Amino acid sequence: MYSSEDLQLLASKGITEKQIEEQLCCFKKGFPFLKIDASASIGNGILSVSPQEAGTYLNVWEQYLNENHKIVKFVPASGAASRMFKNLFEFTSASYDVPTTEFEKKFFKDIRKFAFYSDLNAVCKKNNGHSVEELMVSGEYKAVVLNLLEEKGLNYGFLPKGMLKFHHYDDVDRTAMEEHLAEGAMYAANKSKEVNVHFTVSHEHMPFFKELVAKKQALYEKEFGVKYDIGFSEQKPSTDTIAADMDNEPFRENGKLVFRPGGHGALIENLNDIDADVIFVKNIDNVVPDRLKDETVYYKKLIGGVLISLKQKIDNYVRLLKSGKYTMDDLREMIEFMHRKLFIRNPETKNLEDGELALYLLKKLDRPIRVCGMVKNVGEPGGGPFLAYNEDGTISLQILESSQIDVNNPRAKAQFESGTHFNPVDLVCSVKGVDGKFDLPKYVDKNTGFISYKSKGGKDLKALELPGLWNGAMSDWNTLFVEVPIETFNPVKTVNDLLRDQHQ
């Protein structure tokens, strides 16, 4: 089945034949759709925090910071920015030469408002002998765009998002990565004023990130009075997945096996390698300038406080269960806690003997915890919070994507569409229990990957996406959803999003 060349390739990636067989099996049988019990809403899975409660949670977080725990801000930042500029790439190859679509018109009308404008102006003068304005007056709009996107100019079409200048300040322009450094200093600095930030980046982008850190770290340490520990990691080659042809056999190009990155679910391995008590997770493009950071920082501290309060309670229960010195009343209290606070339900628990019940409770309580901010649904694409069925018959809180839903089933489709909230990827995680660190890959639901259809060299192929980082990869975690305001969610999906007031 596999040539010696194939086996060499597998060995270099750290992938076994057994893993390949498992992946090919996934292509053959597909993935089951998830069964939804209900969409999570305020009072049913989503916590709406009153101002009074908020004060308590903020105090809990401040106290936790004072105890000098290790807190890490984890930022997936491996994606190239090419999708951000899709509309501009289309313009460069269009049959017309002047801005025609609404998108193009807006880009050129407000071009001076971009934080990268002065860099773009300088590179236009260098390459074309004219400023941006002069090129636009003479109708050379495409020359401006090419200077923005191509390597001979700013190379923005190929750089990672983290390297792009997002925000303009009086005396400086900041990239998305720098905004994360500033943000980390505002809510994740412990008593020793240490701030740990970890970026996952692609191999080809690593030098750009390291260069920027070397240039800017000391400036931010001085500005915020902190000491940064900035780490990087790459998606592991062992998390790549085999591509398959339409007959579900390994896809080959020039006789060689083709592998593809396994999507953001692969990052559970990177997360697992991080030594920390608490980890915040947030996407690279969801940042705002300093004038708007207060709200973001407030809610980050708030969900941090909710997590620590929850963890303290759960740890007490776990210690009690492990000691064996619990009463029946204690077990009833724990079931009630799971129902009311964690929204974990299983009708079968009433049939369990005392000993079995204690083991069941231990299994459910002694695992990683995540608290996820949720914003009101405003029609953004992406997943949302639901109560869903797990393999063992329990119902628990999950973040689901549309690909996990059977859209041909009218009931399931209606349940998915009735969701009141949306997942902005705003997580804070506890990855240690009373006996030390959890092994995170053990808590992945492998049945929640999905298959997408791509092509390579003009031939169709099937690609396997691993369970998403905040979907199936954290399926078997204790989860709590907290409502946060939409103002804390300001992603940059297209270059024109930078023209929104939140990014000015």
Which short descriptors sum up this protein?
504 residues, alpha/beta, three-stranded antiparallel β-sheet, 15 helices
Summarize this structure briefly.
The protein is of the alpha/beta class and 504 residues long. The chain has 15 helices and 23 strands.
Write the layout of secondary structure elements.
Blueprint: H1 4-13, H2 17-29, E1 36-39, E2 41-42, E3 45-47, H3 51-66, E4 71-76, H4 86-92, H5 102-109, H6 117-128, H7 132-137, H8 141-149, E5 165-168, E6 173-175, H9 176-187, E7 194-200, H10 206-224, E8 227-233, E9 241-242, E10 252-253, E11 256-257, E12 259-260, H11 267-272, E13 278-282, H12 293-323, H13 328-342, H14 354-365, E14 369-376, E15 384-389, E16 395-400, H15 410-417, E17 421-422, E18 426-430, E19 432-433, E20 436-437, E21 450-456, E22 459-465, E23 478-483
Parallel strand pairs: 2-3, 3-23, 4-7, 4-13, 7-8, 14-23
Antiparallel strand pairs: 1-15, 5-6, 9-12, 10-11, 13-18, 14-17, 14-18, 15-16, 19-20, 21-22
What would you say this structure looks like, in words?
This protein has 504 residues and is α/β, with parallel strands linked by helices. It is 37% helix and 20% strand. The strands form 7 sheets. Strands 2, 3, 4, 7, 8, 13, 14, 17, 18 and 23 form a 10-stranded mixed sheet that branches. The chain has a 3-stranded antiparallel sheet with strand order 1-15-16, covered by helices on one side. A two-stranded antiparallel ribbon has the order 5-6. Strand 15 (384-389) and strand 16 (395-400) form a beta hairpin. The radius of gyration is 25 Å and the shape is globular. The mean pLDDT is 93.
